[in-house]
Fold:
Amino acid sequence: MAMFFLTTITFAHAQTQSNPVGSLNDLSVGLSPEIPQANQEVTLKLKTYLLNLSSADINWSIDGKSAQHGIGIDSFVFTTKGVGMPTTIDVSVLPVGGYVIKKSLTITPSSMDILWEATDSAVPPFYKGKALPTTEATIKYVAIPNMKTSSGTFVNPKDVMYNWSNNYELDSKSSGYGKDAYVFKMPFTDQKETVSVVGQMRGGGLSAQNEIQTSIYNPLVVWYLSSPLYGPQFDKAINSGYTVTSNDISVFAQPFFVSPKNILAKNLSYSWELNSQTLDAQTVPNVLILHRNDDNKGDAVVDLTINNSDKYLQELTSSLVLHLQ
Amino acid sequence: MKKFIWIIVIVLIVVGFYWFFFAMNSSQNGNGGVSSLKSLFPFGGANNNSTGTIANTQAPVQGSNEQTQITASYDPLIQISTRASVGATILLPGYASLQVTASTSSSTSTKNTGTSTSVVQSNTTNPFLGDTLPIVRFAEHGTGYIYDVDVRGKNETKKTGTTIVRVAEAYFGDAGNSVIFRYLKNDNATIETYLGHIVPPALGTTGQFATIKGDFLPENIPSIVMSPDQTSFAYLFATNSGVSGISMSTNGLNKKQLFSSSFDEWTLDLKQSVLTATTKPAGDIPGYAYSVLSSGIFQKIIGGINGLTTNISPDGRLLLYATSGKNNIGLFLQHQNGDSTKLSIATLPEKCVWNKSSTTIYCAVPISLDTSLTYPDAWYQGLTSFYDGIWKIDANSGATTQLTDLNSKAIDIENLILDQSGNFLIFENKNDGTLWSYDLRPVSAQKI
Structure:
């Protein structure tokens, strides 16, 4: 949900008479939503404490063309244009026994995307997909403003003031000019976190806001073959089992989405079993090298348990069946 | 009367002769004759696209003067190498930059020199039809050796002798004369990237391979992309606050920062002058794609699309994109005005390639999806493999046409490339890395 916005309320010609019934300060215009997005339906509503709008003659016009006119029409609905494209709304109000009051608004939509990434989530090298967060993952949120000035130039993200909030509480330390990133550590509970940002162009004018919820995901182990010539062969997993025809085999256990990114970090321990018998620690902790004699045939079950000492209750288990032929 | 009987006999003989030589041959060129020829041509056979079997002269064995007249059915689909590839490019027809001896002869000779093989001429000419076929240059998985082979799988020749074990990716630049190798170090975590220039052996030498000389780029480059003209490439470089996008000429010069971003997980795409950055995808998680302006500012193209993957047209006006998640992939074409059209086929855009004029897209389309999986994650993780068919998309109308079901072969297509003329589609089979070619020419123009 990206948003933007520029509203300028300008003073049109207000007739100046002595003892007028109604003046510019007696009338304001409210927007819903407050910061409209591009191509979004927006409702404008007149607000006043002194004037009787239900009997007033009200005229709404959009970009200079009259769009709605009648007695007591105190609201107006229109659709914004694209990012950076201004729409000007003029409204004139003639109260009974009073003088014409005019107001003008120009709305130029902007938008703000919030991207996020789990900065300490492990994926294999060359992995084309997104690293997902698990419990207690550190997430970096990045705001990408899409703000276009009236001259058609895009606003540099470093020229935007960002106000970051976590679960609707402003984090002033993380907010400021050019601070387009916000880092947050997810809790170990399975709860969604809401991060929101409001950005405003330096010097005022264009502004945009957005919010996002992130969830946590489960880690998993994917098994691959490995060899000195090819290394781990990440294109083809063998999780559904593998038929062994050679005497030597090297299997590579890749934990996805555990922390930290380095899967050989000390806080990750790998425990191996082969046919329910515990194996010694492997030279490369996540790689199991097996040798079999020619007469070894049948199925062998490899079990792996990965414990993360830095994460509360993070344990990962996986099994691989090898069919020896 | 006797004369009349002789005339009848002669007429019957002529009619019988005609029937024997023409009608029978006609019959044998139908289905009845194909099966016996299949044994001679392993890829010949029932293919929907090859509706008419093309009568051709079989290529003779090199060194033999015999030319056996055999009619063959032409299969536009062919495996062009049994070696696993980690990256390929198509050279222009007649290209022969690595030739040892300058020669314009149309014949190709291979000299075995015990430990190495050198090629006198690297362009491939069909010895029977006289036309030149484009050459595919590819790097072999595991060794990094570079080979040339024509698009019909003939005349495979080893070009370089520089060994780069564990090589996982290769990008060719400079019309095939430069190569970027990407491999995993023995720690299984560090990505090395090496930009090399292919140096041919000295003229007049035989039995020598070309060598590769160059320099390493920074470690752990997460994403790299070659420009369409192969003169430059762009890559991501990790910084303290995120990443920088860097461009560099394939000669290693003209290094320039294109952008900086606090966000790291980008996939880059470079088409002519358009650099696109798309967030790395995960099923059912919104993704975003941006065009990177010359000022380094990101201009949004599309966003909030679950499992977003993209492939922008060469002219930058159309965006082929997919939305994906649990048990679903949807393919769309976004026009310049922002309107999107859902296409009748479902695949990932990286399994597609645009033609040069941005009017046609060729896509590998999975025949079915495993309904229990989330895409594209499961495919990237290697947990599933597709059986693909090849489809053609009219980029203007969105109309789709199936070209082939790949004869129901277990081919999971990736890294598609199209030759300059748009006649040959080259791709890798993700299952084993082998290279395949599909002849897109009209049946009447297809030749062995």
